[in-house]
Amino acid sequence: MAKLLIIDDEKAIRGALRDILEYEGYSIEEASDGEQGLELVTQNDYDVVLCDIRMPKIEGLDLLQKATEMGKGAQFIMISAFGNVETAVEATKRGAFDFISKPPDLNRLLVTVRNAIERGKMIVETKVLKKRVYKLNEIVGESASIQRVKDTCDRVGPTEARVLITGPNGSGKEMVAKRLHERSGRAHMPLIEVNCAAIPSELIESELFGHEKGAFTSAIKQRIGKFEQADGGTLFLDEIGDMALSAQAKVLRALQEGKITRVGGDKEIKINVRVFAATNKVLQTEIAEGRFREDLFHRLNVIPIHVPALAQRPDDIPLLVEKFLSDVANEYGQASKEVDDDAMKYLQSLPWTGNVRELRNVVERLVIMCNDVITLEDVKLFAMPVI
């Protein structure tokens, strides 16, 4: 049952609103002035607050602002007999869901209250989902090497610096990019990922910069590229060491000038994009052998972050296993399983050539194939099966 608070200095208005809203099944509380209303809002959680604008002690707009500053999740519907456009605009600026004139139209009141409740639910659900996504994307580990990675992300994230992330396959380079983005001023904008190794060389330019209709045989309509999609946000160029040299030249120009041109087009398009790049290759070697542009390397390598191989931080394996056990259990709707001490020590001794990604797959296999407590025998049987 939704919980509503009515704040109004007119007893007749409070009574009328209470009768209407209780009939609809809502739980109602009342306050006769702004001071009492603020006290109730401070002490309780409401889904919706119906608040008069002109009241003794504390006026409605000031109460709304104080509630917003406290981080209260209640949706405020402001009501007043002295309503005008300026008042409605000011109420909205301060965070009100809507503004209703007195005497309120019954149908509009009920629709507005229902919509306010739904909006509150959506905000709560969004926060929960963001927490889940953050938990899935968090960098797990307390070793000195991984702590350096996290500390660097936290220091560099709020800046506009480009970052080059290096490390072996499966070590968690994508997690580093996501942590950087989440701590940046662009976190509310998209993080667009491009796997340069997965796109054929003849298509990479169209993927990055887009194309105009008719630019080539299969270009039957205009396409917006990843740079444009990431405008205002972040572009993550994964496996950039595999990018074709022709595309590297255009990426360099985009970074230098903040402009791109679609394939088959001649119009320059301004872009505002922060770029993170990642590779499992040693780019200095690629440069020496003519496969990577040195000038692009220096453009990207403003802040280098190296993600260590899992075998170099075995003390982090128990934390990762615990996280993966919980994640897999949640995915399958099961109770989380345990790994006994001998099994955990054995997991720490394995080479993990596939790094964190391989460990995650092994834990999922163990959850599926084993009983509630995963033993050393289980790990020996299922962790490194003979193919």
TrEMBL record:
Keyword terms: ATP-binding, DNA-binding, Nucleotide-binding, Phosphoprotein
Xref: Pfam families: AAA_lid_14, Response_reg, Sigma54_activat
Molecular functions per Gene Ontology: ATP binding; DNA binding
SMART domains named in the record: AAA, REC
Positions where 4-aspartylphosphate occurs in the chain: 52
InterPro entries for this protein: AAA+_ATPase, AAA_lid_NorR, CheY-like_superfamily, P-loop_NTPase, Sig_transdc_resp-reg_receiver, Sigma_54_int, Sigma_54_int_dom_ATP-bd_2
Residue span(s) of domain Sigma-54 factor interaction: 139-368
Any one of the GO BP annotations: regulation of DNA-templated transcription
Residue ranges of every copy of the Response regulatory domain listed in the record: 3-117
Superkingdom in the source lineage: Bacteria
Residue stretches spanning the membrane: none
PANTHER family named in the record: TRANSCRIPTIONAL REGULATORY PROTEIN
Record's protein name: DNA-binding NtrC family response regulator
Species per Swiss-Prot/TrEMBL record: Arcicella aurantiaca
